[in-house]
Input
Amino acid sequence: MNDSVIPPGEVHLWWARVSEAEPHLDRLRRTLNSEELERAARFRVEGAARRFIVARAVLRSLLGRATGVDPEDVVFAFGEHGKPRLAAGGPFFNASDTGDFVVVALASTELGVDAEVIRPLARRKQLVRRICTQHELAAIESVPEAERDAAFLGLWTCKEAALKAVGTGLSGGVRNIEIDLRPDGPPQLHRLRGEVEGWTLVRATLSPEVVCTIVVRGDGPQVSIRPWNFQST
Output
């Protein structure tokens, strides 16, 4: 995999375990700017600050390789809804974190990525009613009860990845995205804020305990997956 050039039609997805970054956290923090460090300090959920630091440091390192600058010198610009991009131009990117995992995806076109650790959900029924269309609700209720938490989390990654891809984030409205949850195949985009053409939804397999979804502009992207090595960066 070439880190510096993302060919059209490809997505490069990197994943890392936050627990493996613990010995390197001081060095990783030094690649972040003051605003990012302040943001990390505001997290109150245990582990969230570490996940943010690791995800942003990995992202900066990858973008530094792609643009030929040091990670700490990568400069971001932000869209209307806060989606970051490279101020000087370069590959498109997106990141997500969950549990002990962070993921960073790069492509030559717009994309969004989301990952969730599969886990029991105490409020799944309320969440399903709040974010699902009738079509999605029927699909989740068609699977055995023991599998519905995983089905919902998979659906959530599809919706959030799609909203991140178009640049709105959750402010774009989760019900503006509809996913066709197929019992005999991978999920597909049914509706994306009034448009579906030109976007592709892809599942990426990182670990049995994690569901990860990418939504990217274009047809049939090839996804390359690589674990991050903190020792070499």
